[in-house]
Amino acid sequence: MTKKYLRMTLNERMQHLNLAVNFTLLVITGFALSYSTAFWVSPITDIPMGMTFRGFLHRLCGVATVFLGGYHLLYLAFTKRGRGIAKDMIPGLKDAVDLWETLKNNFFINRPAKDLKMPRFNFREKLEYLGLIWGTIVMTVTGLILWFKTEWLQFFPMWTWDVARAVHFYEAILATLTIIVWHFYSVIFNPDVYPMSWAWITGNLTEHEMKEEHGLELEKIKARERGELKEFPETAVIVDRKAYALRHQRIKKEGREPLSVSGFYGIVQRFNEVIKNWKGT
Amino acid sequence: MKWREERNKTWMFLWGVLPIFLIFGWMIGVAWSDNSLCLGCHQDESLKKQDVRGRSISLFVSEAGFKNSVHGIISCSDCHTRIQDDVHAEGGKKAADKSVNCGTCHRQAEKEYLQGLHSKMIMKGTERAANCYDCHGKHNILGSKNPKSMIYVSNIDKTCNRCHADAVFVKEHALGAAIPKEEFKESVHGKTGEITCTNCHGGHSLRSLIDPKSTIFRSNIPQTCGSCHPDITKQFTESVHGILAARGRSDSPTCTTCHGFHGIKAKIDPDSPVHERRIAMTTCPQCHAAERISKEYRITTVPVKSYYDSFHGLSYRGGDTFSANCASCHGVHEILSSADPKSMIHKDNLQKTCGNCHPGASENFAIGKIHTVPSIKGEEFGEKVVGWVRIIYILLIVAVIGGLTFFNFMDWLRKTIDRAH
User: Fold this and answer.
1) Above 90 in pLDDT, residue A135?
2) Distance of CA B105 to CAs B71, B101, B111, B115, B130, Å?
3) Nearest CA to CA, how far is A185 from chain B (Å)?
4) Could B318 and A150 be called an inter-chain contact, meaning their C-beta atoms sit closer than 8 Å?
5) Which domains can be identified in chain A, with CATH numbers?
6) Which of residues 348-377 of B touch A (CB under 8 A)?
7) Is the pLDDT assigned to residue A183 strictly greater than 50?
8) Which of A32, A237, B24, B152 is most buried as measured by Cβ atoms within 10 A of its Cβ?
9) Is residue B142 part of a domain?
10) CA of A134 to nearest chain B CA: how many angstroms apart?
């Protein structure tokens, strides 16, 4: 059994799944309007009130995506892991160098190909994540203009609405094609992960995947395992090869109540232990 | 001499008056006769003759049918005035001039008929154009109130269809297309059972399509329909379409352009050409997106094109009937130019028109061009902006997606080649 490295917690996987479902529904219900006579739209147009239902579903998924974005911001701000993600997601010079070296590798300028050690989020992922944020903002703003046209057109001329409509349409094409070309290559067609990276289901990456895509992070994790694990007290709860300090010990150690998913997980685990060891009064 | 004169006078009187009495008596006798003289031969069902073409023609006359007809009390010879009794009785078939002139009694009907199309066609030599008896029958003519009558209101279409639904007949006489038997029956008019062919086409005075006095002459159609739908005709004749149609513009629509002819259906019927799903697909675009008409009259096709690309049009094309179609904003029969203060799309009325579907539409809502076509060369500022947005975005999409695709392809190529080694 090869060693596994946690890539996405259950919470993050649910966020991803939520986004995947909403995004797909938005793409289908959105382009079903723009290409309402296309053959693949017939399941929608053939049923009575199909187009009305399409519009409702599109708005519903839009609202869900906006709420998901809000939740994600809270997650980034108020969990330790979230703050770590936000910190690791900031693009830097290293990413530009990685991109440049990857290009040189790909054009066979580096012979043999240079073994790149990329951080927790490599330039591909940072690019996509930032693009996703940009796209979500654009689609939310233009989508709300289109939705609340009566209110919008109290203050702005008609042509602004037309612009919002054009932007919403072309940004949708850009976003959809980006997902197909960029994301699906990263997680499906990339020969390193083909047929698929299972991280979005299992939450784990294999050591090989870590080495190929996140070499720097792998070294960091190994260093931490060698050194920092000793700091955990003996009473730490070991779950699935991960160590969680018990709550009261962590309060003692950090001097305050830690607000984190793992902290909450620790509480639940401790509660489980209490129930399991219950001997009766 | 005197006596002789007297006697002569008496004889002269006798010789003069007696024949008059005799003739009158004979006439009265014939008139009041039970037609037994004629029916004696003609009630024989096997009585036949050969016509000039050698076809066998039955000479049978049903006595019961005749007695029950409206003409049951009159004599054969009242109509068959030209049959010379002695010659016919001798079997002089050629002498039997059978022609019957209904106009002797029915003068008004004859007058109307002679102005109509059928009589004109007969005069031109068309053998099978409808004569009196083609529609009314011969010996068994019944009153129009009798449900068995050929001209009873619900039987008239059958009577007409004997010729006009006959594909061979229609082809031989170049009548355009045969009227499918069921087409009128299934129409909204046919289903009432009270409206039939003659309501629109006229009866005896039925005229040609190209006769300006005809009820179905192009510019008379609104009046013909208006005999039952007066309010709609009033609306229509005041509309842009109605005004142009009245001036004889053959390309300006009239009732039938949108509603059809014989198979007119209720607008809620999906087969109706004015069903809400068709208004913006065929009804209006049949002219407003037609190349010939738009070229001839310099009507712009932009409204149709821009509508199809608008939210309203896209959703409508997908079957959304809540989405606005042409008629939602422009009206139906009362379509007026935007310059007309009564028009739904006059600038003072637009807020109300938009507000029909968008409650709370502000004054600002209704300002701004609706039928826009985004183009950097557009007439209006918004069209230009959207045109530029489109160009920038397309360039962006091509550059970004092209770049990403190329990057990934090279990545895949390198990894695949590395693996092969």
Assistant:
1) yes
2) 12, 8, 11, 18, 19
3) 7
4) no
5) 4-212 (1.20.950.20), 232-281 (no CATH)
6) 358-362, 364-365, 367-370, 372, 374
7) yes
8) A32
9) yes
10) 14
